Amino acid sequence: MSLVAGSNERFIWGFKLKPVTSEQSLTLVPLFSYPSHQSAILSAAAAGPIAASGSSDDTIHLYDLPSAASLGSLYQHTASVTALSFYTPPSLSFPRNLISADAEGYVCIFDADPFVHLKTVRAHKKRINDLAVHPSGKLALSVGRDDCLAMLNLVRGRRSFYCRLGREASLVRYGLDGEKFFMATEDRVGVHEAEDAKLVTELQCPNRVLCASPGENGLLFTGGEDKNITAWDTKSGKVAYCIEDAHKSRVKGIVVLTKNNGGVDDPYLLASASSDGVVRVWDVRNSMKEEKANPLAEASTNARLTCLAGSSIKCKCSPRHVILLIFAI
């Protein structure tokens, strides 16, 4: 199994998660570190053997993970690239599409094999804060500084829905099954039906939410200014469990990593990155049992990390093979 993660600063770091002496003992081994952009990296995405980073230098940079090599850059945007997302069909180990968003409200759709620009869509009137691709690969949601939510038809390459929210949303995520989506505004996360956008419940967080990642069994993991990683039961709207003081500073990225083969003994890994420059990997099963959870592995970059991205798509790698990419600012 191959996993990828990231964070940023114009520098990119690579780490490999390897077992040490037992199944519960892991270490993050550095793979590489180099400045891949001319200015701060604002977004990252990864799927299978490919990773991408978006920067305030208006470019998207691509990476081949197995060889730790650069694949070049994409130059379709004329503003800071604020959000990235890959779409990978369940039957494939390589992504089919890359979707990107920028600070001028545009969304670009790329074919990922090879990387060819297919379409550019004006989704918002102002900066796009985040976007999420539906598990079917046919739709995408985006939120922006125009206080609006947009739905994009990725098959036809056009905006199909646009509505005013009344307040700015900072991030949006689909659930793993695509039946619900989650939208964060400051310290609140709304749980919505994907079919009609009906608000099901609202999660009240203690501080501003900066990152989120859906998990199995209806869980949603959030992190932010409270320095905690909180697992929410999206059905009841209550906290399932919490990793308190997961970092010394704000949590800027969360990625849920699983084997995805249905085994009950599979490790349920979660990676987190903070603006304190530390990346940590957790087994959330231990977090549910212990009063004070301890990370399985961690690495320090001595930089201000700003985002985290990951992939748990099956490939011909070792089942304990994990790669983490970090970008810092």
From TrEMBL:
Keywords linked to the UniProt accession: Repeat, Ribosome biogenesis, WD repeat
Family annotation (InterPro entries): PAK1-Kinase_Regulator (IPR051959), WD40/YVTN_repeat-like_dom_sf (IPR015943), WD40_PAC1 (IPR020472), WD40_repeat_CS (IPR019775), WD40_repeat_dom_sf (IPR036322), WD40_rpt (IPR001680)
SUPFAM superfamilies: WD40 repeat-like
BP GO annotations: ribosome biogenesis
Ranges for the WD repeats: 269-292
Protein name, UniProt field: P21-activated protein kinase-interacting protein 1-like
Species, as recorded: Linum tenue
Lineage: Eukaryota, Viridiplantae, Streptophyta, Embryophyta, Tracheophyta
